[in-house]
Amino acid sequence: MKSEPVRFAADLGLASCHTCGKLSPVKSGHCPRCGSGLHLRKPDSLARTLAFLLGSIAFYIPAMSLPVMNVSGLGGGEQSTILSGVVTFWEMGSYPVAIIIFTASVLIPILKIAALAWLCLAATGRFSGTHKKMALTYHITELVGRWSMVDVFVVAILACLVRLGNLMTITPGPAALSFAAVVILTMLSAMSFDPRLLWDQRRATPTP
Amino acid sequence: MRRHHHGLPWPRRDRDEQVACEFCDAVQPAPRLREGEGAYCGNCGELLYQNRPRSLSRATGFSIAALIFMLLAHSFPFLTMSAAGASTKLSLIRCARALSHDGDVLLSWLCIFFTIIAPLALVGSLLYMSAPLLYGRALPGALQIARWFQRSEPWAMLEVFLLGFIVSLLKLGHLAEIHFNIGLWSLVALVICIAGATAGIDRRELWDRLELAVDPAPKPEPVDRAG
């Protein structure tokens, strides 16, 4: 029927090395070229992805609700959360800053968490979508993750720059560390996800 | 004068090597490519690998430049801000110090890791591998270093720091007088050089070359350069 049947590495007992990409029999245990352990799929991929994902959701709540920096000056102290910072800049008319912070700190983490959850569901077969869309989603989550660190770096830079004697100082608030945790955990989550699970799912369901 | 042979594929131990797509796991033959070409999966269309032009010399050159700019970016402040008679300077190390000074030691270490250690590991390990590979050699521990290189890649976030820098400037610009220093331009150049160095060489090419250099082939391939 098919002119050229596609052969899959896992069916042949072959595994491509996670580190160097060399294809070798999974039985050998270790990649002959770089020495990394060989697995057909990333070990416990779904469980790890979900665990990191749940961790990041848990950290996302304090990251949004607690103050990300404390501004203390002559007129007493002031604490600002990420969202209140966005609102302040929007009202001040600094639209670019407001948009950058909103995208990097609010939109990207939420979209990333949603995308990873969607991929996990798809990999367990509870959700289906065209593989092109899922491939795109996976690549975007991989690419975009690190850019959320922007707000943490902004706090660090402001803390370094704004220490004008008794006039004004900026110190990082508890949300800064939580936010860094969100970024790191979503990055780890995306790294432990194995996109081949999506294809395994597709192959398992018989196509008419 | 042609010092470089265009269209040379990188050497490889296995003549008829097969490759499995990292995305859909389909096994297919891995053709050797001319420079500038890419191989795509026949099943799902994902990029398998690319033969990037002048890969080794690009990786070497950009990583040497990156190390020099890294030195400059750490020795000079990025900017000096002065307001109300006081002035402060900004540099990566000062940033981390400010964070640890305010009690957030963990955050300070994270910043040091993302902006100082990971970029240094990335560039240093790439130079350690690619410069000897230009002469077909591998220095001791090159395989371990190659694994480090791949692992440190997503954690080097200097370009994100640069965006944070721009955002902070937009925040502070109206509050104080700001002078840019050499450190900032070095940082910009460093980000460009890191991008150039890591985009210069395909991971598979690096590993294929390392494999040959670490352990000269038992069944040697005819040398392409001959003739």
TrEMBL record, chain A:
The chain crosses the membrane at residues 50-75, 95-122, 143-164, 176-193. Its main location: membrane. It holds the Pfam family PqiA. The keyword Cell division does not apply. The keyword Protease does not apply. Keywords: Cell inner membrane, Cell membrane, Membrane, Transmembrane, Transmembrane helix. InterPro entries: PqiA-like, PqiA-PqiB_transport. It is found in: Cell inner membrane. This is Paraquat-inducible protein A.
UniProtKB/TrEMBL annotation, chain B:
The chain crosses the membrane at residues 62-86, 106-135, 156-176, 182-201. It comes from the Bacteria. Pfam families: PqiA. Keywords: Membrane, Transmembrane, Transmembrane helix. This is Paraquat-inducible protein A. The lineage of its organism: Bacteria, Pseudomonadati, Verrucomicrobiota, Verrucomicrobiia, Verrucomicrobiales.
